[in-house]
Amino acid sequence: MAGERRRRRAAAEAVAWCLALAVVALLLVGSVEKEEEEEVVVVRGARLAAARPCEEIYVVEEGETLHSISDKCGDPYILEQNPHVHDPDDVFPGLVIKITPRSGGRN
Predict the structure, then answer these.
(1) CATH number, domain at 59?
(2) Which residues contact 61 (CB under 8 A, 6 or more apart)?
(3) What is the DSSP letter of 79?
(4) CA distance 97 to 13
(5) What InterPro entries is this protein classified in (predicted)?
């Protein structure tokens, strides 16, 4: 009986050490940084309007209204496509909206 206990205890200790080593290995792998990371460029406001005025994702610039954006991009259904905009008069710089330009818009 005592010999069986020792074997079970030794097996439990071996399993515990293996799990501890696996955790340490995962921590080491997770802490290694990738050498080649993608560069993310954020373009907002006037720079976005100058580059591509009517992409699918549009960031509202200061002084713009839903009407002016609709005219600029040719999307008369901006309010319907953006349920997070509850009031058409509550448009502010930095607001992100979805644009679906129509064939008659200026692109």
Answers:
(1) 3.10.350.10
(2) 44, 45, 46, 48, 49, 93
(3) H
(4) 57
(5) LysM, LysM_dom_sf
Residues in the chain: 107
Segment 12-33 mean pLDDT: 84
Phi-psi region of 31 (alpha: psi -120 to 50; beta: other; left: phi over 0): alpha
pTM over 0.70: no
| In a domain? residue 105 | no
**Is residue 38 one of the residues assigned to a domain?**
no
CA angle in degrees (0–180, nearest 5) for 57-62-65 = 70
Number of domains observed in the structure of the chain: 2
